[in-house]
Amino acid sequence: MMNIFPKPSLSNRISSEFSQAVNTMREGLARNGKIIVIGVGKSENIATKIAATLNSTGAPAVVLNCQNALHGDLGIMAEGDTVLALSYSGEITKVFLTKTCHWKLTNSATMTFAATVKMLRKDEAVLRKWTATTHPQSFWMFMELREAGRSLVNPLPGFATHGENKWLCPLVDWSSVAYDETRK
Predict the structure, then answer these.
(1) Which residue segments constitute the domains of the chain, with CATH numbers given?
(2) Phi, psi of 103, deg, nearest 5
(3) Which pLDDT does position 6 carry in this prediction?
(4) DSSP-derived secondary structure for the chain
(5) Rounded Cα gap, residues 95 and 103, in angstroms
(6) End-to-end distance of the chain based on CA atoms, in angstroms?
(7) In sequence order, what are the residues at sequence separation of 6 or more whose Cβ sits closer than 8 angstroms to the Cβ of residue 182?
(8) φ and ψ of 165, to 5 deg
(9) How many CB atoms lie within 10 A of CB 82?
């Protein structure tokens, strides 16, 4: 049977990042870890298929629902595990642990965020660019700001990203955070 639609060479479609991801998973499996696959929305559906395929080849894998992870399911993670995070939008989810709480790196705050006046002035052109229409585009605004080295974080657990004191994360001494920011 002749294929009238020749497929491009696989080597032309796989980047070095793909090879690096495969090697990272292999190293984790060699340490007797499992592969934890995460995604949100359609990416979670794909994560489920990838985990099933990995399991069928003998590589232990589980799907971690991101919403449930925030409510206790992080307990499935153990030393030596490898996380394969899928994203179609390009948003990267990173969680940082400090002494007082967890922080999630995010790209969207529905335009409710806190920043120093100094930072607002530095980023004024970007802020104006993405808020010039009737509907602000906070996701794309923070994607552009990330390219400029800025980060937006939300506290976990936290009630909201609002700047009103009654809604701030109760585990953080916000007055010392604000003081440290003004000293930069």
Answers:
(1) 1-88 (3.40.50.10490), 99-184 (no CATH)
(2) -125, 135
(3) 60
(4) ---SSPPPPHHHH--HHHHHHHHHHHHHHHTT--EEEE-STHHHHHHHHHHHHHHHTT--EEE--HHHHTTTGGGG--TT-EEEE--SS-PPPEEEE-SS-EEEEES--TT-----HHHHHHTHHHHHHHTSSSS--HHHHHHHHHHTT--EEEEES-S-S-SSGGGS-TTS-HHHHHHHHHT-
(5) 5
(6) 68
(7) 116
(8) -55, -40
(9) 19
Q: Could you tell me which of 106, 87, 99 has the C-alpha nearest to residue 38?
A: 87
**pTM for this structure?**
0.49
φ and ψ at residue 32, rounded to 5 degrees? 65, 25
CA–CA separation, 3 vs 1, rounded Å?
7
How many angstroms separate the CA atoms of 54 and 48, rounded? 10
Kindly give the pairing relationship between strand 102-106 and strand 82-85: unpaired
User: How confident is the model over 60-98, as pLDDT tens digits?
Assistant: 999 988 777 766 777 888 888 888 888 766 655 566 666
